[in-house]
Amino acid sequence: MAYLAFAEGDAVGGQVAHTIAPNAPAAPGTLTSLEWLVVALAKNDRLSSLRTPGRLSTALGTVFGMRPNPRLADERLEALRRIAVLSWHHGYVVEGREVERFRAAGFTDAQYEQVVDSIGADQMAQRKERFRH
Asked: Is 71 in contact with 53 (CB distance < 8 Å)?
């Protein structure tokens, strides 16, 4: 079973939304549908989601029902989420150690470029849309 995330007015938004088939193999050097979903969802994550929550923020979250930490249990997908969050906030300016973490998780330089280019294209489309209105 496959699901389709629409580019116009959808929850994950923008050009990084793709058809999502849970076990669909990706072409070599490209991301899977699940990985593209992680990139799209990272658009809504704050930079603070990359830090380990302290005791105080954990306690406040419990008391006030704040959003749970969006970290992923799968280390490979978490490395992708981290790169995506940083790219959504900083564009092409990502620390070298984060890129190394991304590579160590099994991703390639081509996949890194795909992620950052896709995010950049989405942000450019959003700017053009805002400028038109």
From this structure: no
| Distance in angstroms (rounded) separating the CA atoms of residues 25 and 81 | 19
CA dist., res. 86 & res. 43, Å (int) = 9
Q: Tell me the whole-structure pTM to 2 decimals.
A: 0.69
Q: Can you state the angle between helices 33-41 and 109-132, rounded to 10 degrees? A: 50
- Could you report the per-residue pLDDT of 68-106, keeping only the tens digit for each? 667 888 999 999 999 999 999 998 899 999 999 999 999
Tokens of 95: 């620390």
Asked if 109 and 117 count as a contact pair (C-beta separation under 8 A), the reply is no
CA dist 58 → 3, 44, 69, 78 (Å)? 34, 20, 9, 20
- Classify the phi-psi angles of 6: left when phi > 0, otherwise alpha if psi is within -120 to 50, otherwise beta: beta
pLDDT in tens, 37-78: 999 999 988 888 877 767 776 677 777 776 666 788 899 999
